[in-house]
Amino acid sequence: MGIFDGLKSVINEAVKEENINQGNHSESFQFSKIPANVSELQALPEANLNSPYAAVALAMIALCGYKQNPGAVYEMLDFLNGPDEVSAYTKSFIKDRLEGKTYKPFSFFEGATVQNNYTPSEPFTIKVSANPNSFIEENWATLYVQSAGADSPRPMKLRKKPSTGQWFVVDIQCLSDIRIPVAEDPWA
Question: At what angle do helices 70-80 and 52-63 cross, to 10 degrees?
Fold first, then answer.
């Protein structure tokens, strides 16, 4: 029986690796609170940035702090952006997408719904997924997060720095409009 258990383990690991390589993979991350600044973000275990999934999760939890302190969010995104600073264009893009709509990043976390005005459960839990096209270009990835206010998953693009093995967020594409929360819907 020991031989078959070992064989089963080897097969399960091979299937898991194949699923990751084919993009049929998701990872969930939990955060006890929203980081208030880059030091708090860097103190999180995911901040080693060895996983593209973790980098996406960190970007999403950082964006949740926009209403309290946009400047701190930009500093956190600078860290997650790697060797490049977040551009003025990206800052303008984020401001345009989140001004008056700071509920958007919260909509990606478990428990958030249109009916509860995108108030996620705590701890803050987010699922990051890949599809078969997520890793088609070497050192690049496009991963996805699902908003409770959207019908399809939203992308975020990442780039791997081969010398360190770290993954950095280079394009936050997931902030387009979603269904407005009930509290702001005049037709609700």
Answer: 170
CB 27 within 8 A of CB 51: yes
| Cα(184)–Cα(186) distance, integer angstroms | 6
Tell me how far apart the alpha carbons of residues 68 and 35 are, in angstroms, rounded to a whole number.
11
* H or E element in which residue 127 lies: strand 124-129
Give the residue among 8, 3, 23 at the shortest CA–CA distance from 128. 23
**How many other CB atoms sit within 10 Å of the CB of residue 88?**
8
Lateral strand order in the sheet of 140-145: 26-31, 124-129, 140-145, 154-161, 166-172
Is 121 exposed, middle or buried, given 0-12, 13-18 or 19+ CB atoms closer than 10 A?
Answer: exposed
pLDDT in tens, 171-187: 999 999 999 999 998 98
Instruction: Tell me how far apart the alpha carbons of residues 104 and 87 are, in angstroms, rounded to a whole number.
Output: 21
Q: What is the pLDDT of residues 26-50, one digit of tens each?
A: 999 999 999 999 999 999 999 999 9
Global pTM value: 0.87
